[in-house]
Design brief:
With 289 residues, the protein is of the alpha+beta class. The chain has three domains: 46 residues, Uridine Diphospho-n-acetylenolpyruvylglucosamine Reductase, domain 2, CATH 3.30.43; 111 residues, 2-Layer Sandwich (Uridine Diphospho-n-acetylenolpyruvylglucosamine Reductase, domain 3), CATH 3.30.465; 112 residues, 2-Layer Sandwich (Enolase-like, domain 1). 37% of the residues lie in helices and 25% in strands. It is built from twelve helices and 14 strands. A hairpin with a 4-residue loop joins strand 6 and strand 7. Helix 5 runs antiparallel to helix 8, helix 10 packs antiparallel against helix 11 and helix 11 packs antiparallel against helix 12.
Amino acid sequence: MRRFDLLEPATLHDACVTLAKSEDSRVIAGGTALLTLIKHGVLFPKTLVNLKKIAGGDGIVYDPDKGLRVGALATIFDVESAPVVRRHYPVLAEACHVVANIRIRNMATIGGNLAHGDYQSDPPTALMALDAAVELISAAATRQVKLGDFLLGSYETALEPGELIAALILPPPAVMRGNYIKFTTGSSEERPCAGIAALARFDREICQELRLAVGAVSPRPIRIQKAEELARGATFTAALIAQAARLAREAVEPIDDLRGPADYKRHLVEVLVRRALTAVAQSQEGKSS
């Protein structure tokens, strides 16, 4: 590994100022992705800007009226294990729990996970279903961007030069039932070949709202809007679930990679969406009974 300078700013604003002054610098928090890229010679930064010592950057705060604010420096395990997340946003806790292994989850930060823009990742899919946004900070301003507008493609985000993720913002939780399904072609610690997040709100047996997100197959996670529209005002019958799964298959634009060809992933999405929605329907039946 080549030598580099290490800077440790006291605030996120100071970090942004430092980044704006140096074009050949990179931010490091957990380092689980960046250090791998450096070791393999993909990146050669002259300066690393360490964020881990910034006080308060890892806070997880819940307000029933405003929703959830997760500091970008919170680790994946912090998010997974936070009582407010497990209680009010259990799908996010599920998605964080299946990331790699406990060693990685204790190091990797939620902000780094999103800033990296890796399409083969679990949390972004659940966050898409939860209608999350990111708070971005620069030396000059702060702005909020919906996650769907932030994740632009494989390893591509809307971060501007000198800008950082300050926090993750989730709206107040609706009374929805759901699940996250991760499928791998190897061990459970591997990156997902496909990830499905499904959330539904019912009034008796009628679906009032469905949120269905598919990740790890296309360049970025996507919401399956046609399936969501199909389910609104309908009962979760086997026929509806099958049709929603077909719509998901048609909506994705899979990438050929080591975990499978595009045609295989399309079929996989259809199967997994059917399983996810069937589980949602069965949980509603159990609640009604």
